[in-house]
Design goal:
Elements: E1 11-17, E2 20-21, E3 26-34, E4 40-49, E5 53-54, E6 58-61, E7 69-77, E8 87-97, E9 106-112, E10 130-133
Parallel strand pairs: 2-9, 7-10
Antiparallel strand pairs: 1-3, 3-7, 4-5, 4-6, 4-8, 8-9
């Protein structure tokens, strides 16, 4: 059955991301969301870094079979041209449906630390399903 455009906004039920990672690692952000109308279309991501500001929005297309319920992870490559091992940022994620309704936002702080070990999500909460990449270059710390 084809998804119908509806009045209900998508809702992010649960989300998880490690608060620390090493520079150059792939940072996974786990999401679980639903839309009663079954018309989720985009995962919208914005990245903010102190002293740099906001990066352009990244949109991840949601597959047709995930438009009512989705569970999995999006990911961001933390490699930076500057090679500076310490940095921090905040990723905010929302889901948009076909009608333009936007879900509740969820935000994730990230600190790069050369000794960091990424935390894993609680067992049983999220599928290990790749939902797509966050297409934003990881920001560099501006030169003084």
């Amino acid at each position: 059955m084809a998804a119908q455009e509806g009045e209900n906004a998508p809702f992010i039920i649960a989300a998880f991301a490690s608060k620390e990672a090493q520079q150059g690692e792939t940072w996974k952000i786990f999401l679980q969301a639903e839309d009663l109308d079954g018309d989720m279309t985009w995962i919208l991501c914005t990245l903010e870094q102190p002293g740099v500001g906001f990066q352009p929005v990244s949109r991840i297309k949601i597959r047709n079979d995930r438009r009512r319920n989705l569970s999995g992870y999006i990911f961001l490559n933390t490699a930076s041209a500057s090679g500076i091992p310490f940095a921090s940022c905040r990723l905010t994620v929302q889901i948009q449906d076909k009608r333009g309704n936007i879900s509740n936002p969820v935000s994730f702080p990230l600190s790069l630390n050369p000794r960091a070990v990424q935390q894993t999500p609680p067992p049983g909460g999220f599928q290990d399903e790749n939902l797509g990449p966050v297409q934003i270059p990881f920001p560099s710390i501006p030169a003084p």
